[in-house]
Design brief:
The chain has three helices and no strands. The radius of gyration is 44 Å and the shape is rod-shaped. Helices cover 94% and strands 0% of the residues. By secondary structure, the chain is an all-alpha fold.
Length: 107
């Protein structure tokens, strides 16, 4: 009987120790998870940073759009000018134009 009682006490003691260790492990796991999980405040902070970056990018895009728009207008103007000079050059150096000029001088 004593032997059985000692066995029961031994099993109960081991079971209690196991339960304590299991509870400690659960607490440690919860602490680790809480450190890793993003809180609502963390998410709100990240959203704020993302919105700030969006505004900054939109501003940069607007500046670049205005800059390129001006440069494209300048390029278009230069293209028109060069096409005009090419037309004038072709017109003045063509044999037909030279004949027309000679005819007009004779009047």
């Amino acid at each position: 009987m004593k032997n059985r009682l000692n066995q029961f006490i031994f099993i109960k003691t081991n079971f209690d120790e196991y339960k304590e260790k299991e509870t400690e492990r659960k607490i440690e796991i919860k602490k680790d998870l809480l450190m890793e999980i993003a809180t609502k405040a963390d998410i709100a902070e990240v959203k704020g940073e993302i919105n700030a970056l969006r505004k900054e990018l939109k501003g940069d895009i607007s500046v670049l759009d205005a800059k390129f728009s001006g440069e494209f207008k300048s390029i278009r103007l230069w293209m028109k000018f060069l096409v005009g000079i090419a037309i004038i050059g072709i017109t003045f150096f063509s044999p037909t134009t030279l004949e027309l000029i000679k005819i007009l001088k004779s009047f």
